[in-house]
Every structure is written in structure tokens, then in C-alpha cells.
Amino acid sequence: MELYAVRIFVKEWEAACAFYGEVLGLPERFRSDEVGWAEFDVGGACLGIERVDPGDAEGAALVGRFAGVSLKVDDIDATHHALVQRGVSFTAPPEKQAWGGSLAHFKDPDGNVLTLLG
Question: pLDDT 10s per residue in the chain (118 long)?
């Protein structure tokens, strides 16, 4: 077995694709506006962005929550600063953890929370 994708559920399709591709700068591997699926390269596996139908109450419950996705960066302070300059909303600046690394949580346009790990 190998990890293929981690899925992030969104309602605002165009905004989400622009956010992950242009704002975060993740290379787009695949995108289908028709089916509402896009794949962004995160170094091996991909981050899959999946559009949720607005009428799907069960699917809507998957949008706007802590996604449990950590994106490792070489310099968390520089990355945090650059993303803030691009309008990314962070819940707090990077914070040193007891185990030695640093974390900073940010939100995509649908309110999904992801983590920068440095």
C-alpha cells in the first residue's frame, strides 16, 4: 500500500483551486471542473481538493474543519511571513513545540484548517 491522496472538501471550488495552486504554490497535477476534483503535488502523495455539492448535507459537514494535514516547510517563519503577505489567514504565528519543531495553523477559503510544520 502507498498513500495516494489526502482529501480536502470544499464548497468554493474556484477559490479553493486558486488558493492551493496560486497562493500556496502547490503544483497542480490534475483538475476536472466537471467532476470537482483537483490534485496538488505535495511531494509524493497529493492533496486532493474535492467539491461538495451544496445540497449534500452530509458532505457539507466535511467542509470547514480541522483537516489533520501538516505541510512541512524548510523555514516556517519565512513561509508564514510570505503566506500572510498573500492573504492567508493564520490562527496564530508559528509556535515552538516541546518536541522541538514549530507549528502554525492556517485556513483555506472554506475554513478548512491545515498546519505548517517546521
Answer: 999 999 999 999 999 999 999 999 999 999 999 999 999 999 999 999 999 998 899 999 999 999 999 999 999 999 999 999 999 999 999 999 999 999 999 999 999 999 999 9
The CATH number given to whatever domain includes residue 49 is 3.10.180.10
Report the alpha-carbon distance of residue 30 to residue 46 in Å, rounded. 10
- Pair 114, 106: CB distance under 8 Å: yes
DSSP code, position 45 = S
Domain that holds residue 48: 5-53+63-117
| DSSP-derived 3-state class of residue 4 | coil
* pTM for the full predicted model: 0.94
Residue in 50, 49, 48, 94 with CA at minimum distance from that of residue 72 = 94
